[in-house]
Amino acid sequence: MILIGTGIHAQDFGFGFDEESGGGSGGGDSLLPFTLAIGGEINAGAAFFYHDFKGEESAEPFSIWDVLSAKTNFTVSGKNAEAFIGLNFSNRAFAELKDGGPGPVYPPMLLDELWMRGYFDKLNVEAGFIKLRWGRMYSPGPLDIVNPLDYSDLTNLTDSMAMKIARPMIHASYNVTDFSMIEAVFLPNFAGHRFAQDGRWTPLQYSNMNSVFSPRIMSRALEKYSGNLGALLMLQPLLPAIESGFTGYHPDFPDTSTIDYFQTGLRFNTVIGQADCGVQYFYGNYFRPSVSISNDGIDPFFDDLTAGNLSSPPYTGNPSLLSPHIEYSRYHQIGVDYSQVLFGFTVRSEFAAHITEDIKGDNGKVKNPFLAWSLGFDRDIIAGFNVNIQCNETIRLLDSKVVKDPAIDCEGGDDVSSTRLIVQLSKNLFRDKMECKLVTIWDIEDKDCVLIPSVAWLVNDARLELSAGFFVGDIDGELGQYWNNSYVKLVLSYSF
């Protein structure tokens, strides 16, 4: 970190303020009215994927510019105000700018954070593109819902702050007492989690959309024309073409950059005895999109198809008429959290209830109401090892009303609960010059997990880290689907 401004006279920079200030010879004793801090890091390294060495056509190209990246930040601090800008310099960030970016709802990857903060006695107000953490958990829990996460590259799953995407917001906090604080936040629009739309990290929910919707399209054809033998005879030779034609179709996501998708929340933190406690309310959108298709979307497609002539090649219809319904479910969240040191264990917990628009549970376009909780602890154990364990779970309510067809109900193919266990075991060696760590992320219902071992050597401002990621388990699971993306990563970093 480089500091500029503390104890430095204006005349040392040759600004010539002495005569203008009217301070005579004493004018040179005035200090700059601000402090400028510059920090960041430079990285050289890359991740190497086992699948790329198999010589298959699906292996992605590797650029030398993928090896180099950097982060830098500038903080300007005054007596009652502070401004911050953080930038990411990488091949991905520059390629995004060249290609036009991922859309208006996301800031460019080049921008990490950009905000300004004012201090007014007990009231602090900040505005800009901000990363905000709510809740008590070591890893993101059910109350940490202000910022979406970037899942377009899963080689940094253990760095939740790096995965956070800064959002435009106004955030205010007021210190009621020395141990109590109220926070309020307002976001003028919404952005869901960022997922890769092509390449090795594309989730199956998008790349295999055809396997979900095609059977529903076929069955609806039989339902719609069960009494029309002529229509069925005409459709029969076209059904394979309909299925293949829908494979590459990716419907547009809703525009969430407008004020219609505003979000807001209120949080209260306090200390009761030896425990840190909090309660919060949040009104926003679920970060993962809900996708469904109904007869109202399929029927216009078949009406158009049967109206066409059996020409050569045969007319296979307009897939855009299918119009799958995609939305980010609105909800109200009421949550509480708690943390305390008990018998040498630092215990953390969170609980939240989410009320969506589908209060009866029978609307396949919207997520059902659900509960979410998280419980974890960390402590030092034998031989200097530290263990951190956290369990997150969501439980869907009104599950009996969910239609089991995933094409009709956005939750039709999901389990009633989703449980993730995160275990981290770490130890420092050689007077903290070496860090050894093993992180396991296990999705219980999906029967898959990822193992992330790492070892880092630190010498002053330099850090050399070797890490790996092994995706194992059910290939249809959220983590197991990336079984061929196991990697080894080597990075040399210099921090300043």
Put simply, the count of helices is 8
Low-confidence stretches: 7-30
At the first level of CATH, the class of the domain at 430-496 is Alpha Beta
Rg value: 27 Å
Strand content: 35-45%
In the CATH classification, which architecture of the domain at 430-496 applies?
2-Layer Sandwich
- Major beta sheet, specifics? 18 strands, antiparallel, barrel
Helix content: 10-25%
Per CATH, what is the topology of the domain at 430-496? Pantoate--beta-alanine Ligase, Chain: A,domain 2
The structure class reads mainly beta
Query: How confident is the prediction overall: mean pLDDT?
Result: 85
Order of helices and strands: EHEEEHEEHEEHHHHEEEHEEEEEEEEEE
- Overall shape: it is globular
In total, the number of strands is 21
Calculate the terminal CA-CA distance, rounded to whole Å: 5 Å
